[in-house]
Design goal:
The chain is an alpha+beta fold. It is about 40% helix and about 15% strand. The protein has a two-stranded parallel ribbon. The longest helix is centred in the middle third of the chain and has 15 residues, at about 35-50.
């Protein structure tokens, strides 16, 4: 939950739910390369206007300040 709060505060000051996905389910644990590969996946998704769902994510804690993309891909727009 702390990581989710940090993402929300860093991206928009906590004023709205930020949509996110986790590429780790697709790529596995890449160790030191994880950050850059997830960044690249996010940029590719934003440029395509479609973010893939987070694999193996069944439900989100209702108190979670971010909007986890799960189930199916979702259209997104650049801020």
């Amino acid at each position: 939950m702390w990581e989710a709060k940090g993402i929300s505060l860093a991206l928009d000051g906590g004023s709205r739910r930020v949509p996110v996905f986790a590429a780790k389910g697709y790529l596995g644990n890449m160790g030191a390369a994880a950050g850059i590969t997830e960044l690249i996946a996010s940029i590719v998704g934003l440029n395509a206007g479609l973010m893939p769902p987070s694999l193996n994510h069944d439900r989100t804690d209702p108190n979670c300040p971010i909007d986890v993309i799960a189930g199916s891909s979702r259209p997104v727009t650049k801020p």
